[in-house]
Write the structure tokens for this entry.
Amino acid sequence: MSLDYKQAGVDIDAGNRLVDIIKPMVRSTNTAGVLGNIGGFGGFFDIGAMGKYEHPILVSATDGVGTKLKLAIEFKKLDTIGIDLVAMCVNDIIVCGAKPLYFLDYFATGQLDLNKATDIITGITDGCKISDIALIGGESAEMPGMYQQNDFDLAGFCVGVVDKKNIIDGKKVRIGDHIIAIKSSGIHSNGYSLVRKIIDSKKIDLTREIGGKTWQEILIEPTKIYVRPILNILKTYKINAMAHITGGGLLENIPRVLPTNCSAVINKKSWQIPDIFNFLQQAGEVADSQMMKVFNCGVGFVLICAPQDSKNIIAELNKSPDSQSWQIGEITNKSKNPVEIA
């Protein structure tokens, strides 16, 4: 009997139909720098079209969304998981003061379902629009035998640009600097293996409400994208360091941008930890130290600035409900722990 690729589990025609479906979605993200259309062997981008840079430095980042994908599949809610994917990459890019330029995605699945794939890419294009970046390419791989039929994985890749003189690397952080927190939209995309363990072991009813939303709605809430508020702040104020609060929480992400002679003191009383984190802690009997090391606990991003600028920066950020902020701590002399929770 003659065999073909489709009998082996790979439908090339379905893949081609997907490209046709998503072409207008991808074009809707185009920015001034985009050259060409999706479907070629590579994506082209003209940095010169994005403004004048004395010494442009490219900044790259790649990430995924971890086991949040398992919940997205279980909840049959796939049209926002792409926002998480973009957020995890662009939020890393802006930490060094760079402007994200373009994005590429990798989508691998056991069996290509056009409706599901379209939902996923809808989320990716939505995330790109929120970030003001272009989706210039990607890969959709059908891999029978590698993934179960309904399973899939996602990876994202982002490139940004910053003038060399404007790179923010933490070297200018000084003792006495203020630490400003920007509110997260929820759990974001880290800690979901522990979340799922708590749900399964405690048999939590996901229709149960916390603060007017069901568990399911809270768990699938997309990661907040901080590109616009951060780039807006950088137009006016000098920022000495920034950190995207992902896996490792405040305890491990802030030290990544501190000089060796500095520590950070975080005032836990400066904000109210969202109910979802308190409920997870109680349900799973999770220690305080684990909560701060695994989850963002309501803080998605931090900035470190000179004390005389913090009030104005906070006021500017608070003009938008999407970037609610407050002073969460300050920089001190090096102590035993790089981050102290007081």
Notes: The chain has eleven helices and 14 strands. Residues 184 and 300 are 4 Å apart (CA to CA).
